[in-house]
Structure formats: structure tokens, C-alpha cells
């Protein structure tokens, strides 16, 4: 399974910063021990690709280091050349995963990504550029170049956002866009304080556990099915719903998070919808807890990738 990463680009964060940057390297290293994952360093998104979503002024500010102090505080990271490089490659990883999924792989992944708090003209909440939004727009553009049949209708993308924090930037970017469906299942009282309306928002109470979460997820996917028929999904599989997360406020067990992932991948598989997986948030009291949860998500993705490969070899395979 194709897995893309940008772990060589580490942000020089001040001592005591609460963002667990090492989680990306630890996850990549864990996956590297299994030859079933084909790990590849992500290519950077180009300025033109970013401009499908982000304003030219904001792209230039990130690239040239002219973000204001207020903009840097909103993002949560100080500017550095590595910030700009990593942000581009994090977007590039989701682009490559989406492209691979659509090209017949069915499932591909970004070790990072899920930067759903970034708006068109600003970042926020540890998010610089919005990788899912840029990947969705670029896949739509590439779809349209396939010829008259593809141009007859746009590629329809579902962004299934199961990070514990509401996908405010993504919702704002695709507001009133009938070609992209934004679903956010999140903590009602968690960041951001001001939510943007997604196509479907499901707000969960603090302390929500496995059974209530899975019931809400099944209902959300039923509603998505009734309202939209995607050709591609981008899945934000946040580990911050886990009971061991210091920012999450929900109480999903290891098995509960895995069940969540299986519900999503099974729903997509039954409809033969290719999916690009991003890992989104994860802030465990113990960083190794976050990595363990994310490894299990990757293992679920790998199982469904194998189904796609079996189907390619035998179209009647289930």
C-alpha cells in the first residue's frame, strides 16, 4: 500500500511546545518494519496547486516568512523555512495518496495530513495549508482532463472528517459547493469555539464512548449516502478521539477506534469508493499511545487495500 510521508522536515519548535512532532517519525518507522507498506517521501505541492484553494497573498506569506505574529499564533507554530517546506509536502502527500487511490490502488495514505483548520486565506490550529481541500480540487481538475466523458460531470468528493475537532476550514472552503460533501463528527465543546457549518455536522458530548460514537457514525454515513454519491473519499482518521488523548475529551477505546475505522472502510468498500487516508490529530498523554492507535488505523486500511488488489486480479472477488 502506498504511504507518503514528509518526516525529514521537522519544525524547530520551542522547548515545551505541546505539538507532538515526533509522532510522524515514530509512525513512519513503525510502518517501515512491514514490507506491505510502500513508503515514499512526498513531493511538495506547487504554488499553482495550493492556489486551487488558498489565496496568493497567503501562499506568499507562508513561503516568504511574512506571516504576522497574530497569524503565527493562530496557526500555533512559529514561522521557519522548514514550516513552509513541510506544509507543502504534507499537502503533497495527500495529493499523491488521492491520485494513487483513484488510479486503481483503491486505498493510499498520508502519514500526516488532515489539516482541516486552514482556511483559504489563513491557517489555524496547527494547520498551515488545507491538504484535503487542495487534493480534492486538484483531483477534480485532473478528472476533467480525462476527456469529454469525464467533463460531463465533476468528480464528487466526500471528506469524511473524524478528527475530534470540527473541520472548520474545510467547511468554509466548500460552503455551497455541491461537488464536495463535508462530514464532520466531532466533540461539541472542543476546538474551534466557532464552528463553520459543514454539509453534515454531528456534535458529540464530552465523554462519548465506543457505543454512542459508533451509533452516531452509522447514522452519519446513512445520511451521507442519502444525500451524495462520491467518486472519491478523503478520510481524516484522527487518533484524538481516543480515551488517552489530552486534547480530545472523548473516550473511545483502542478497539472502539479500530471499529470506527472498519465502519468507514467497509462503507467505502461496499460502494467501491477509492479513499485517501490522512492521520489528522493525535495528542496522547503518551505519544506511543497515539502511534499505536494510528498503526491500527493503517492496518485496517491495509486490509481493505488488499481487497482492492484482489478485486483487480479477479473482478468477482468480494
Give a verbal description of the structure.
With 318 residues, the protein is an alpha/beta fold. The protein is 45% helix and 12% strand. An 8-stranded parallel β-sheet has the order 2-1-3-8-7-4-5-6, sandwiched between helices. The mean pLDDT is 95. Helix 8 links the parallel strand 4 and strand 5. The radius of gyration is 18 Å and the shape is globular. The chain is built from 11 helices and 8 strands.
Assign a percent range to the helix content.
Answer: 40-55%
Catalogue the unreliable spans.
Answer: none
- In DSSP terms (H or I, runs of 4 or more residues), the helix count works out at 11
C-alpha termini separation = 19 Å
Q: How many beta strands in the DSSP annotation?
A: 8
Radius of gyration: 18 Å
Strand order of the largest sheet: 2-1-3-8-7-4-5-6
Short description:
It contains 11 helices and 8 strands. The protein has 318 residues and is of the alpha/beta class.
Considering the chains and any ligands shown, give keywords for the structure.
single chain, alpha/beta, globular
SSE layout:
Layout: E1 2-5, H1 22-32, E2 38-41, H2 47-50, H3 56-64, H4 69-75, H5 81-105, E3 107-110, H6 131-144, H7 148-151, E4 157-161, H8 168-173, E5 180-187, E6 200-204, H9 210-227, E7 232-236, H10 254-270, E8 275-278, H11 287-313
Parallel strand pairs: 1-2, 1-3, 3-8, 4-5, 4-7, 5-6, 7-8
Helix pairs in contact: 1-11, 5-6, 9-10, 10-11
Amino acid at each position: 500500500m502506498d504511504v507518503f510521508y514528509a518526516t525529514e522536515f521537522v519544525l524547530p519548535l520551542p522547548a515545551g511546545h505541546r505539538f507532538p512532532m515526533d509522532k510522524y517519525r515514530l509512525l513512519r518507522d513503525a510502518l517501515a518494519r512491514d514490507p506491505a507498506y510502500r513508503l515514499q517521501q512526498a513531493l511538495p505541492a506547487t504554488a499553482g496547486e495550493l492556489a486551487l484553494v488558498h489565496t496568493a497573498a497567503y501562499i506568499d506569506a507562508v513561503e516568504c516568512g511574512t506571516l504576522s505574529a497574530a497569524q503565527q499564533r493562530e496557526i500555533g507554530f512559529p514561522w521557519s523555512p522548514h514550516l513552509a517546506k513541510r506544509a507543502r509536502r504534507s499537502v503533497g502527500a495527500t495529493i499523491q495518496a488521492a491520485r494513487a487511490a483513484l488510479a486503481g490502488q483503491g486505498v493510499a495514505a498520508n502519514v500526516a495530513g488532515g489539516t482541516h483548520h486552514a482556511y483559504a486565506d489563513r491557517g489555524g490550529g496547527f494547520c498551515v495549508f488545507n491538504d484535503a481541500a487542495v487534493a480534492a480540487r486538484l483531483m477534480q481538475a485532473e478528472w476533467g482532463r480525462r476527456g469529454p466523458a469525464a467533463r460531463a460531470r465533476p468528480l464528487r468528493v466526500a471528506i469524511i472528517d473524524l478528527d475530534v475537532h470540527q473541520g472548520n476550514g474545510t467547511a468554509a472552503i466548500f460552503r455551497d459547493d455541491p461537488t464536495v460533501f463535508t462530514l464532520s463528527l466531532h466533540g461539541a465543546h472542543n476546538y474551534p469555539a466557532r464552528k463553520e457549518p459543514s454539509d453534515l455536522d454531528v456534535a458529540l458530548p464530552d465523554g462519548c464512548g465506543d457505543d454512542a460514537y459508533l451509533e452516531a457514525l452509522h447514522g452519519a454515513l446513512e445520511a451521507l449516502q442519502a444525500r451524495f454519491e462520491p467518486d472519491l473519499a478523503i478520510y481524516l482518521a484522527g487518533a484524538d478521539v481516543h480515551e488517552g488523548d489530552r486534547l480530545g475529551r472523548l473516550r473511545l477505546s483502542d478497539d472502539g477506534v479500530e471499529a470506527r475505522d472498519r465502519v468507514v472502510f467497509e462503507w467505502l468498500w461496499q460502494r467501491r469508493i477509492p479513499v485517501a487516508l490522512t492521520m489528522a490529530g493525535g495528542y496522547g498523554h503518551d505519544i506511543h499511545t497515539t502511534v499505536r492507535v494510528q498503526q491500527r488505523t493503517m492496518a485496517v486500511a491495509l486490509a481493505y487495500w488488499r481487497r482492492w488488489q484482489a478485486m483487480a486480479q479477479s473482478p468477482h472477488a468480494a
